[in-house]
C-alpha cells in the first residue's frame, strides 16, 4: 500500500473519531473502538493526538452498574469558533458560534436600504470585532466567517452575482470582507445556510432528502438531497419563486407571466392590498386579517392556496421525506399554518401523502447565522 | 492497517483499472500506471487477474513516433451480456447488450391492452429465450435482466406499485420474472433507465446535472444529479406531469386541477381534438397539423407553450447543465422542436439562459432497453 494512501486513511480515521466524540459524548475509548472497528491501541493514539491539539478532554464519571469509575471523553467546545453573518435588506445579524454549534452571542444591527456596499461591510466588521472583544475570544481561535444572503451567489468564487434585495451586483464579497476583517470568508445563499442549520440541529436532522421553503419578502427554496446541499450547475437550484404557476396570471419583474412570487411574496401581497386600502406594510395586512377584514382574508386565502400548490409541486419533483416551511410570513402570521395544512391535504398527490412530513423551521431567525457558521466550520476544519 | 481495509482497497483498485481499460482502450499498462498513480508492478498483477477472468485481452499495435511495438490492452466485449427490456402499453422491446454497452440485437413485440400480467411476462420470457439462442450466447455469460416500465416503481423491492398505463398494481415483477427466466432481474421506472442510457452514451455524457423530460402518452422526468440517478424518498422524484401549472385549468384524473399532464399528454391532446373533429389517434392530430388545419395548430401551440413552461420550471428548480427532451410526441412531430425552442428562449430566466443546453434524446426508442441493460450490469458486476 502506498504511503499517500496510508496518510489519507490516518486522517480519515482521526476525523471519524473526533466526529464520534462530538456527536456521542461523553463516550469511552472502548465504545469508540467498538463503533469504528479500530483497535484500542489506534484509538488511544488518535485520542492522545486530539487531546494535544485541544479538541478533546477527559471527564471522569461513575458508570451505572458495578460502580467502577470509567474515563469518558468529551469535546472542548471552545477549541475553535466561527462567525455566522446574515445580511438582509433591513437587518444584519452576527453570531459567534462555538465548536459544537452553540450560539455564544447573537447581535442584530439595523441596515438602511440606502446603505452602500462598503458601509454595510464596515458595519459588519466593526460589530464583529466588538463582539469578539466583548466575549474575550482569542483571534487565533476564530477560524473564519460564513455569510448568508439573498440572491444568486457564486459560492465557489465568493461573488454575489445578483442580489435584488440588497441591490448588489457582481461584488467580491468574500474577498472584500477578508481584506477588512483578516479572517477567511465563505459566502452562500441564505436559504442554503438555513437548511444547513436545520440539518445540523433542527427539523431536518437525520433526513436524507429535505426541502426548505422560504416565504417572506423573497420566495425561494433550498434542499438537502442524498444528505448534501444540492446546488445544481451554478448554485441556483431551488428558485421556486420564478416557477410559473399560472401562465395567464400576474406579470413578474423577471419578465415572465404567472411566477409563484407574484402571488405570495410580501411585495406582491402589499401591492394587491393597496388596491383595497391605504397600508404601510405587510404588517397592516396581517392586522386586518386578525381583525377579520374580508379583503385581507381573501388575499391570504389566495396566498395559502399558492403556498400549498408550491408544496405539492416540490413534492412531485423532489420526492423529499420532508418539506420545512419557513420565513417571515409564516413566523409573523402563524394563523395561516392551519389553512396551508388543510390545502396541502387536498393537493398532495395520494401516493406521496402518507410518507411526507410537512413541518416548520425550528431555528427561526437564528437559522441563517447558525448555518453559515457551521458551513464555514465544515469547510475549513478538516484535520490533518 | 486492518486486513479488511486492504481487501477493500484491492477490490477498488481492480475495478478502477478495469473501468479505465473499458473507457480508454486501447491503452498500455504504463498509461494506466500514470493515470492511477499505482506502481507498474501493481498494474501488471491486476491486469493478469483481469486477463484470467476473461475481461481483458492484449492487442499489439505499432505506436506512432519511433515505431516500436507496444502491447496495448482492450476489454473483451463478449465476456458478459445483460438483457434490457422495455414494457409499454402497446409494445415490448427486448435487447441483448454486451459488456461495452452495444446492442447485439433488439426485438419489438406488440403488446395488447387486454393482455394479462402473466401473458406479458410469458411473452417476455419466450422471446428473450429465442433471442439468446439465436445469437448463441452461453447462459452463464448472461448476468441478468433489467426492466424499464412506466409508473411508480419500488426498485428496491422489485415491485410495481402502480402503473396506470399497464394497469398493474402491486405486482412482484422482479420476483415473478426471475422465477420464469431463472435470471437475476432488476426493475425501474422507464425514464430513469432512459437517462442512464443518455448518460452512458447519449446527450448527457459527461454531464453532472441533467434532466430528461418524457413527453408522450405519459408525462414525466428523470434526473442525474451530482452524477447519480436522483430518486427521492420513494423513487418518485421527477413526477412533473402532476405539477400544477394552471390552478384554474383542466381537471386531472389525479383529483387536482391544472396538472401539466392535462395539457400536453397524448390523451389530453386527443381528448381536446375530439371536441373539434372525429379522430382516431394522436397521429390524426399530427397529420392535421401538417395539413395546416388551424385547430391542430392551436392545440399544438398550447402544447409547446406548456412544454416550454415546464422546461423553464425544471430549470429554476434543478438548475441542471442540460435538459434532454424525449418521447413520442417530439419524435413523431419533430416540427414542434422549433416553436419549443423559441418559447424556451422567451421563458427561461435570464441568469440561467446562457449556461443551460436544451437538447434532444440521442438514443430515441433504444434508450430504455439500453439503460436497463446498463443499470443491471452496474448493479451486479462489481468485481471481487
UniProtKB/TrEMBL annotation, chains A, B:
The molecular function terms of the Gene Ontology recorded here are:
DNA binding
Q: Which InterPro entries match?
A: ATPase_NBD (IPR043129), HTH_CRP (IPR012318), ROK (IPR000600), ROK_cs (IPR049874), WH-like_DNA-bd_sf (IPR036388), WH_DNA-bd_sf (IPR036390)
Name the keywords, alphabetized.
Answer: Carbohydrate metabolism, Xylose metabolism
Q: Name one GO biological process term.
A: regulation of DNA-templated transcription
The HTH crp-type domain extends over 20-74
PROSITE patterns, alphabetized: ROK
**Record's keyword annotation contains Signal:** no
A Pfam family matched in the record: ROK
The free-text function statement in the UniProt record for this protein reads: Transcriptional repressor of xylose-utilizing enzymes.
Protein family according to the UniProt entry: Belongs to the ROK (NagC/XylR) family.
Q: What is this protein called?
A: ROK family transcriptional regulator
Q: Which organism is it from?
A: Bacillus salipaludis
Upper taxonomic classification of the species? Bacteria, Bacillati, Bacillota, Bacilli, Bacillales
Amino acid at each position: 500500500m502506498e504511503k499517500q494512501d496510508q496518510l489519507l486513511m490516518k486522517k480519515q480515521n482521526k476525523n471519524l473519531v473526533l466526529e464520534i466524540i462530538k456527536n456521542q459524548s461523553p463516550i469511552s475509548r472502548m465504545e469508540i473502538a467498538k463503533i469504528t472497528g479500530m483497535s484500542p491501541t489506534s484509538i488511544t493514539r488518535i485520542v492522545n493526538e486530539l487531546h494535544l491539539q485541544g479538541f478533546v478532554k477527559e471527564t471522569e464519571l461513575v458508570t451505572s452498574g458495578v460502580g467502577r469509575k470509567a474515563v469518558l471523553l468529551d469535546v472542548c467546545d471552545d477549541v475553535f469558533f466561527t462567525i455566522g453573518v446574515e445580511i438582509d435588506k433591513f437587518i444584519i445579524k452576527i453570531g459567534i458560534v462555538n465548536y459544537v454549534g452553540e450560539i455564544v452571542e447573537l447581535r442584530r444591527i439595523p441596515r438602511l436600504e440606502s446603505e452602500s456596499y462598503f458601509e454595510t461591510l464596515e458595519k459588519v466588521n466593526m460589530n464583529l470585532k466588538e463582539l469578539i472583544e466583548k466575549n474575550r475570544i482569542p483571534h487565533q481561535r476564530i477560524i473564519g466567517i460564513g455569510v448568508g444572503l439573498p440572491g444568486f451567489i457564486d459560492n465557489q468564487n465568493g461573488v454575489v452575482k445578483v442580489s435584488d434585495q440588497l441591490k448588489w451586483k457582481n461584488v467580491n464579497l468574500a474577498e472584500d470582507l477578508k481584506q477588512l476583517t483578516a479572517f477567511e470568508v465563505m459566502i452562500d445563499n441564505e436559504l442554503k445556510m438555513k437548511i444547513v442549520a436545520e440539518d445540523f440541529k433542527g427539523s431536518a436532522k437525520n433526513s436524507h432528502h429535505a426541502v426548505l421553503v422560504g416565504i417572506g419578502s423573497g420566495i425561494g427554496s433550498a434542499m438537502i438531497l442524498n444528505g448534501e446541499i444540492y446546488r445544481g450547475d451554478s448554485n441556483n437550484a431551488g428558485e421556486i419563486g420564478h416557477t410559473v404557476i399560472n401562465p395567464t396570471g400576474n406579470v413578474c419583474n423577471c419578465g415572465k407571466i404567472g411566477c409563484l412570487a407574484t402571488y405570495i411574496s410580501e411585495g406582491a401581497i402589499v401591492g394587491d392590498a393597496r388596491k383595497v386600502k391605504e397600508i404601510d406594510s405587510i404588517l397592516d395586512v396581517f392586522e386586518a386579517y386578525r381583525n377579520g377584514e374580508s379583503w385581507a382574508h381573501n388575499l391570504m386565502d389566495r396566498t395559502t392556496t399558492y403556498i400549498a400548490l408550491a408544496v405539492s409541486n416540490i413534492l412531485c419533483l423532489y420526492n423529499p421525506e420532508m418539506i420545512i416551511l419557513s420565513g417571515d410570513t409564516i413566523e409573523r402570521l402563524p394563523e395561516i399554518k392551519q389553512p396551508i395544512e388543510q390545502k396541502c391535504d387536498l393537493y398532495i398527490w395520494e401516493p406521496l401523502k402518507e410518507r411526507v412530513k410537512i413541518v416548520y423551521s425550528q431555528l427561526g431567525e437564528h437559522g441563517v447565522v447558525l448555518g453559515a457558521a457551521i458551513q464555514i466550520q465544515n469547510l475549513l476544519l478538516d484535520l490533518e
